[in-house]
Amino acid sequence: MVLKVGILGGANIANKISRAINSIPDVAQVIVVGSREASKAAAFIERNKLVHATPVAGYDAVLDFPGVEAVYIPLPTALHVEWVQKAASRGLHIVLEKPIAIEDEHVDAIVKAAADANVVLFDGTMWMHHPRTAAMEAALQEIGPVWDVDSAFTFKGSADFLENNVRVKADGDPLGALGDVGWYCVRAILWAYDFTPPTHVAAHHGALFNEAGVPLNIAATLLFPGGRKARFLAAFDTVFTSKLEVYGDRGSLRLRDFVIPTAEHEASFVVATANGLADGDTRIATVEETRTVRNAVTQEAALWQRFAREIEAVRAGGRAPEYWPRIAALTERVLSAVLASARQGCALLPFEHRA
Length: 355
Fold this sequence. Notes:
Layout: E1 3-8, H1 12-22, E2 28-35, H2 38-47, E3 54-57, H3 59-63, E4 70-73, H4 80-89, E5 93-96, H5 104-117, E6 121-123, H6 131-143, E7 146-156, H7 159-164, H8 176-180, H9 182-192, E8 200-203, E9 208-209, E10 215-224, E11 228-235, E12 237-248, E13 251-255, E14 266-273, E15 277-278, E16 283-284, E17 287-294, H10 299-315, H11 323-343, E18 349-350
Parallel strand pairs: 1-2, 1-4, 2-3, 4-5, 5-6, 7-11
Antiparallel strand pairs: 7-12, 8-10, 8-18, 9-10, 10-11, 12-13, 13-14, 14-17, 15-16
Helix pairs in contact: 1-10, 4-5, 5-11, 9-11
């Protein structure tokens, strides 16, 4: 059964998602797009060649559109609670763009709404669904146990971006770079530690905020049980970087394109073993292997394939999976803790985990 999808709004990232859904017509199909003005929805539909979609005015019209079964919500974060609750109350399954919320209470409300309605809730962390990620999980067993993780996702926004983009607006996406690009870094760290919550977090000195108090450049250290640790950098004012490095007892794993692969249909990562120096410390003896994974569909399409499979399980009488909302909530709460640390003079704060 082809999943019938509605899109709320025409955010830039929705263009990529529309393209992904169009590439898997046997899995999903966009049938309605809503914007504040129907003409804007129509322009979005034409631009993305959504030949089966109808433009409507307003987001409620998407939720009430005949036949819609799931919605993609790429709205500003400040609007997420309202529209997740409305969608869930209608029994619609949800892909929610990250960050999913702006504070812990909103996270609770979003997760509860989906659970109470037994609807599938995914966040938009696309790299989690790339087959490279499964290959890297296997590699972690080779290099582990993991003791340290380092991640960075940054780009240099234009003057217009830093002034006008919703991601720097306190009333739209108040987590700024922390929520937008830092989300991926924190998710990668948690993934490397099998979603074990940290024990403490500390923002680094030197974080940059705009006049509205939105973070534009922020870094932090996360401490985990047993002396394990991680660091990340998220920034809107730094040259493009998308790196993930994981260090274990027996080796390391690294990649420089962990959020968006260099190529759409193949992606690589490097595993290093036999680490160290040799011949009287005159040469590096580390052995490195580049591993390449090929994928038939893009990681965005792979997300929607998995989302559709989870929905089929619910249709067959099952419960919506708790795993995806759980890791989304954990990611969001770590971000909130980092922001709290930054606003408290970069204090080392205990992380209060809520299951």
